[in-house]
Design goal:
The complex is a heterodimer of chains A (279) and B (260).
Chain A: E1 5-20, E2 23-37, E3 45-50, H1 57-64, E4 72-78, E5 91-93, E6 99-102, H2 114-121, H3 129-142, H4 158-172, E7 176-180, H5 188-204, E8 209-213, H6 217-223, E9 226-232, E10 242-249, H7 263-277
Parallel strand pairs in A: 3-8, 3-9, 6-7, 7-8
Antiparallel strand pairs in A: 1-2, 1-4, 4-5, 9-10
Chain B: H1 2-6, H2 16-37, H3 48-60, H4 63-90, H5 98-106, H6 112-122, H7 126-151, H8 155-163, H9 168-177, H10 181-205, H11 212-222, H12 225-253
The chains are: A alpha/beta (279), B mainly alpha (260).
Bound molecules: adenosine-5'-triphosphate (ATP) and magnesium ion (MG).
Domain ABC transmembrane type-1 (chain B): 67-246
Membrane topology (chain B): Multi-pass membrane protein
Protein name (chain B): ABC transmembrane type-1 domain-containing protein
Chain lengths: 279, 260
């Protein structure tokens, strides 16, 4: 079991609920994630959300990214522009642009080619044009997108669009990145690319935090160090709202950052499966 | 034989040569009908020969000059109305200015005559009058279509830009303005038929400035059927030419513009 230390809060979600009209979609969502520090290496956070279809994962993600104002509650992230007071980092309410977001539909700019999109994502970076070009070309070749760099979104396949959307956010976003079902529609090779990208993000900064949703339980158990199950508390009730029904802290369970898939991991997968079925 | 049967099956994809054959068949049917229906002494349509004569007489009367005058009127009016409409439509995402564009779009139900009455009190020059009437009416239609284009932008596209650290004004610039320029050309094209029709009408109300509308009015007076049909054909042809020019421009300038 890897020893680790819990430090500052990096994400605090307080009593979130969202309604459309008079239908409550998610209710009372509360959770808190801390910066985990593993001695001797840089370790970011990977948080997975699992839940059956329509339980409100995408809705919650829109709130986490500041794109939608919740009916109640708030999402807090540390405000690094201010000095710590009493050993604590001041917090601020998340705003649009603070958190990168790849949506479930792989939306892109329809009028920008792949290359132009990535250049746009880098527009706020201070590096020189040549540096930007080099960085983009490196990503394109790593992700197998070199050949289509001058194509528009409507000339790309679904998986290509999705990888473009992920790359855009990689280049643009700060420490936080939310991805709604980043693995759907990808082939085995692309899945490895995205996994490698997660790994890279994790290694590159202590505070980097990836939040993603998926329907692939094994993948979530392999990648995440914290898994939340979004479901209905009372599955039979018709107008039930989504909320967090389970939290699995893989760090505490000793299952996080494992190089291989152990029988304990498999057991957790079984647990999660039955918990999903019951919600 | 089987290929002919396929032409009568819904959603059957047609080959290019098949389309040419179908189109020519229709053209031949129309021409034959025209020739047959204009035989004899009493007929509704003028004979092809009469239309030909009408065409020559129009040409001698300065068809080209009138055509140029109409086209220049069309260009002027389109330019100003598009400018006004774009500004108003692009500002519609601002809640404070939204009522302006919505109201403008509703005003298109007002009758033309009422507005020309008030305009006549302000504008004295015939040409200016024509331009202002057209600008006002075209703007109302343009704003309506542009609003539809803007309202059809999926929320995801706006959110995508927001999540890439775009300020709200940047979102407006990238997602509403830049990424939909090809739609503006298509709005122009789709409204061109209305413009073209109004243009001829406006010209025939105010004959002093010339144009195709004046030619129609003159032909009406003499009940010269050949000339009327010839003129209609010219107006139709020019309209279709403008239409396809805009379509080709859109597809040529914007490779990603893949609709219709
Ligand atoms: N704009 C909307 N208006 C009304 N209801 C909505 C709206 N958007 C989503 N919903 C409802 O909210 C619920 C949650 O939707 P959401 O997209 O968050 O689910 P999800 O967990 O992401 O599902 P999936 O796994 O299928 O993507 C669904 O029941 C959906 O019908
Ligand atoms: Mg979803």
């Amino acid at each position: 079991m890897t020893t680790y230390e819990r430090r500052d809060t990096i994400l605090h979600v307080e009593n979130i609920s969202v309604s459309y009209g008079n239908k409550t979609i998610i209710r009372n969502v509360n959770f808190e994630e801390k910066d985990t520090a593993v001695p001797g290496k840089v370790q970011g956070q990977v948080i997975a959300f699992l839940g059956r279809s329509g339980r409100g994962k995408s809705t919650l993600f829109r709130v986490l990214t500041g794109l939608e104002k919740p009916a109640t509650g708030k999402v807090l992230i540390p405000d690094y522009s201010r000095q710590p007071a009493n050993g604590q980092q001041p917090a601020k309410v998340v705003e649009e642009g603070d958190v990168g977001f790849v949506d479930q539909k792989y939306t892109l700019f329809r009028h920008k080619t792949l290359y132009q999109s990535l250049l746009f994502a880098l527009r706020k970076s201070m590096s020189s044009t040549a540096e930007k070009h080099g960085r983009i070309m490196q990503y394109l070749s790593d992700w197998g997108l070199e050949k289509i760099k001058d194509q528009y979104p409507n000339e790309m396949s679904g998986g290509q669009r999705q990888r473009t959307a992920i790359l855009e956010q990689l280049l643009s976003s700060g420490n936080y990145m939310v991805l709604d079902e980043p693995f759907s529609g990808l082939d085995v090779g692309n899945i490895e690319n995205v996994k490698a990208a997660f790994e890279l993000i994790n290694r590159s900064h202590e505070l980097n935090t990836i939040i993603f949703s998926t329907h692939d339980i094994e993948l979530a158990v392999q990648l995440a160090d914290s898994i939340y199950i979004l479901g209905h508390k009372n599955c039979a009730g018709s107008d039930d709202a989504g909320t967090i029904v389970h939290h699995y802290d893989l760090k505490a369970l000793g299952l996080a950052w494992h190089p291989n898939f152990t029988p304990q991991h498999l057991e957790l997968v079984q647990n999660i499966r039955s918990s999903l079925l019951a919600s | 034989m089987t290929s002919i049967r396929k032409w009568f099956r819904p959603f059957e994809p047609a080959t290019k040569s098949g389309n040419v054959i179908v189109f020519s068949a229709w053209l031949i049917i129309v021409v034959i009908y025209w020739i047959i229906s204009s035989l004899g002494t009493k007929h509704l349509f003028p004979t092809p020969a009469q239309v030909c004569e009408g065409f020559i007489s129009l040409f001698n009367e300065g068809l080209i000059v009138h055509l140029a005058s109409s086209l220049s009127l069309c260009l002027q009016a389109t330019f100003f109305s598009l400018l006004i409409s774009l500004v108003i439509a692009y500002l519609s995402p601002l809640p404070a200015l939204r009522p302006l564009s919505v109201a403008m779009s509703k005003v298109r139900y007002l009758p033309l005559t009422g507005i020309t009455f008030y305009l006549a009190m302000i504008v004295s020059n015939a040409r200016q009058m024509q331009v202002s009437v057209l600008v006002i009416f075209m703007s109302l239609y343009f704003i309506t279509s542009l609003l539809a284009v803007i309202n059809d932008i999926p929320k995801e596209e706006i959110d995508h830009a927001r999540s890439l650290k775009c300020s709200r004004w940047e979102v407006l610039w990238e997602v509403v303005i830049k990424s939909r320029i090809d739609y503006v050309i298509d709005v122009l094209r789709q409204n061109l038929s209305i413009t073209w029709m109004m243009l001829v009408t406006v010209e025939s109300i105010l004959v002093a400035a010339g144009g195709l509308g004046v030619l129609i009015k003159n032909s009406d007076k003499f009940m010269n059927h050949g000339r009327i049909v010839a003129l209609q054909l010219v107006i139709l042809a020019v309209g279709l030419l403008l239409d396809s020019a805009l379509n080709i421009t859109r597809k040529g300038l914007f490779r990603y513009s893949k609709f219709n």
